[in-house]
Write a structure and sequence with these properties.
Elements lengths: L4 E7 L3 H11 L4 E6 L6 H7 L3 E4 L7 H9 L8 E4 L4 E3 L3 H8 L6 E7 L11 E8 L4 E4 L5 E4 L6 E11 L10 H11 L4 H13 L3 H13 L6 H17 L3 H14 L5 H12 L3 H12 L18 H12 L3 H14 L4 H16 L1
Parallel strand pairs: 1-2, 1-4, 2-3, 6-10
Antiparallel strand pairs: 4-7, 5-10, 6-7, 8-9
Helix pairs in contact: 1-2, 5-6, 6-7, 6-8, 7-8, 8-9, 9-10, 10-11, 11-12, 12-13, 13-14
């Protein structure tokens, strides 16, 4: 069955993404963009490539207001609305698969979202998104980390197999607006556990250790905060904050709680090993890394931490083995670390030193 598919987006000063984004979105019937104040030629280039562009300055700025304003640009006769950003790209053929799985009673669709790609080309954080939906009965909520909500009576969400949207974030962009908007989100919805976790995490990113600890402790106390993976993440960030403060007793306690909260995840074991490493508790490092490496299932959630699946575990393990005199085990771990990251000169040099130690043992 054929549907009218419309892409909609918001943007500001994203000229370097325009051509790639338009090439990816051209599978849609129409493309609508709300430009919120570009001065680098972004709207002109979008229009030249066929997008419908409206310019509007939103004061005060909120991501949900901007998303809702961009959605309002989409005509009422659209069957399917697809929200993306200009630094995102669909794998080709997404329109075909969208129409293949969409049904007349479908309200929204979930698809695979790759938030970042690592330096070696492998996928980083991957989770499921549902920003494809019908024209009616949907509204964006939250000033930042906005999400779309269904306002109708009978939602019918489908899974789009084979559809993947890839994000190529611009790391040069400032996150300065995130913290005040997250504080606003928490003030508007004090009982929203999702926003509380995001706020505590943002305090950690900002180096506000005490606020991070207090906010994430509040998150863990909320009765609706039941998702073990997210609770584990809050405990991990609390542990990291205490470690930054130099309070390794509390750091140990919180990372142990994180392990107990979600023992099926690799990330808390890695955090525990890092706390042990900071204190030169080499046997502790060996124990927690060994337990971490037993876990081979990598969940597709935004809580996934790429470093837990990088060369880091083997790097920590090789150092711990080395300082406990287990040089052959250290070399084996070091070889694996270098195999995962051949371009790190420190890993290569460590490997050379450990190899020399085994030869002289």
């Amino acid at each position: 069955m054929s549907y009218k598919v419309c892409v909609y987006a918001i943007c500001k000063n994203e000229i370097k993404h325009v051509d790639r984004w338009m090439a990816s979105m051209k599978e849609a019937d129409e493309i609508y963009v709300l430009d919120t104040g570009s001065d680098d030629g972004t709207p002109e280039r979008l229009q030249a490539l066929g997008a419908h562009v409206v310019r509007r300055t939103l004061i005060p700025w909120r991501f949900d207001d901007a998303r809702n304003a961009s959605l309002a640009l989409v005509p009422q006769d659209a069957d399917i609305c697809v929200c993306t950003d200009l630094d995102e790209v669909f794998d080709s053929g997404w329109r075909f698969r969208l129409e293949l799985f969409w049904a007349p009673d479908t309200t929204c669709a979930r698809y695979r979202y790759v938030w970042n790609t690592l330096e070696d080309g492998t996928e980083g954080i991957v989770f499921m998104r549902n920003n494809i939906h019908t024209r009616e009965n949907f509204v964006w909520k939250s000033p930042v980390h906005e999400h779309i909500e269904y306002t109708g009576d009978s939602p019918n969400e489908i899974l789009l197999q084979g559809v993947c949207l890839r994000h190529y974030p611009d790391v040069s962009k400032s996150r300065a607006q995130y913290l005040p908007l997250l504080e606003l989100s928490a003030a508007e919805e004090p009982d929203n556990d999702r926003n509380m976790h995001y706020l505590g995490r943002e305090y950690f990113f900002a180096g506000l250790w005490d606020k991070c600890i207090a906010t994430l402790t509040r998150h863990l106390e909320m009765p609706q905060a039941e998702w073990a993976d997210e609770r584990c993440a809050s405990m991990r960030y609390i542990g990291r904050a205490y470690a930054e403060k130099g309070d390794f007793l509390q750091a140990e306690l919180w990372t142990m709680r994180a392990v107990c909260e979600a023992p099926y995840l690799r990330e808390p074991y890695i955090d525990a090993a890092r706390v042990m490493y900071a204190q030169k508790n080499w046997d502790g490092v060996v124990f927690f890394i060994t337990e971490a490496l037993k876990i081979n299932y990598r969940p597709d959630t935004y809580l996934y931490d790429p470093v837990s699946w990088s060369s880091l575990p083997y790097d920590l393990l090789s150092v711990a083995y080395y300082y406990t005199g287990r040089y052959y085990e250290a070399l084996e771990a070091s070889d694996k670390a270098v195999g995962l990251n051949k371009d790190d000169p420190r890993l290569v040099e460590n490997n050379r030193l450990i190899r020399a130690k085994t030869e002289n043992a």
